[in-house]
Secologanin synthase (Aegilops tauschii subsp. strangulata), 435 residues
Amino acid sequence: MDTIINKSTISQELSCTDRSSHAMVAMAPAAGLVLASLAVVLATTLWKAAVHLVWRPYAVARAFQRQGIRGPAYRFFVGNNEEVMAMRAATADDVLDLGSHDIIARVMPQYKAWVASYGKIFLSWSGYTPSLCVGDHDMVKQILSNKTGLYAKPNPGPNFLALLGKGLVFSDGDDWARHRRIVHPAFTMDKLKMMTRTMAECAGDMVRPWEALAAASDGGVARVDDVGQQFVELTADVISHTAFGSSYREGKEVFMAQRELQYIAFSTMNNVRVPGLEYLPTKTNLRRRQLTGKVRGTLMAIIRERQAAAKEAKGYGNDLLGLMLEANASAGAGGQKAAAISMDEIIDECKTFFFAGHDTTSHLLTWAIFLLGTHPEWQQKLREEVLRECGGTGTPLHGDALNKLKLVSPCLSHHSDPLNAHSTTTSDTHFTCDR
Ligand SMILES: *[C@@H]1O[C@H](CO)[C@@H](O)[C@H](O)[C@H]1NC(C)=O
Ligand SMILES: *[C@@H]1O[C@H](CO)[C@@H](O)[C@H](O)[C@H]1NC(C)=O
């Protein structure tokens, strides 16, 4: 306030001594007002910052402590992010024992350290955002199945939002239900089975070079390097074909852009989020915007093409996108606009299953192959079963045959069940195909 008063008195003095400074006299009150409002805005911002960065963390930590929940101490603004990054850097080069399934110590060392110090339920800080980690199986179940809307999904931040959109993963309540009604028909078992052939062809393209390698070697054994990367390519191929069918090439372009968005999202995961910072023209922000635009433009063109085809009574297509558009059309039929989803929402849904469809699956396959590599006896059993139920090379794969794979299925689903995966992280369960 001092400066404001000083300035106006100075200009008043000036106006007495110098008659040519009319403009300044007129400006002085205006400038005073601007400065005053700036001061008010600044004070409010500082107050809000103090509440968010100092008071709230303190109050939240205390409220949890009263319930017996502890955790690593909050540090101003950065929370525990620096500790996490240091712990990650320390374990980044660790090589796990071949028989070890303790990946948490390697990829999430902070989790292991904090569970050991504070128990299975603890409070940590991602920047100034509190994060309650629940490692209790029953409690996790209760939270995931609670439909009261109390457990809302966290704000993913601009980089994850660019990657996944506000699709099924990040939407809540009614929005989530509406999306689910549109997406669900595309993922029913009979629809997925229709895609078996496409998937088998993609897998065949990957395996044939392996078989050729094995055939050319002495003992009929081939060494395949970097299996993980091959599975990434395989799953990208599968999802591009099954999601976008005839528009497969454009689908692949979306995939490449999504991969880069994924890289951006994960490499900035431990940065403290400051609201508004995503609009600054930094290199990452510009690239993210460019990629988001590309993904959106390509998907929109594919969708427009389908809509045009449907108008000519050619149908939406038999791939995942076509099935979603069809479900949307029937949901919106009869003037029920509220049940339908918009262009942007369907784009977000495409992003979601593009990411979710390839990333998790390629990791699952890589891990499964690794385990089979270390457990040859199981390799033998599963191979026998597949050959018996599905037929050898050259026999077209039928979706129905998959139901008969009584050994293969549980081996895979054991690892793709998130609740199960969670319990493996907290207790010392070892991988067994116990059947
Ligand atoms: C949902 O969670 C809230 C808060 O923990 C709890 O009060 C409520 O009973 C839960 N509802 C169900 C159906 O579990
Ligand atoms: C979904 O259906 C509604 C109503 O039929 C329609 O207005 C909307 O354009 C459709 N969305 C897409 C992406 O086709």
The pocket of 2-acetamido-2-deoxy-beta-D-glucopyranose (ligand 2) is lined by residues 303, 307, 325, 328-329, 332, 337, 340-343, 346 (CB under 6 Å).
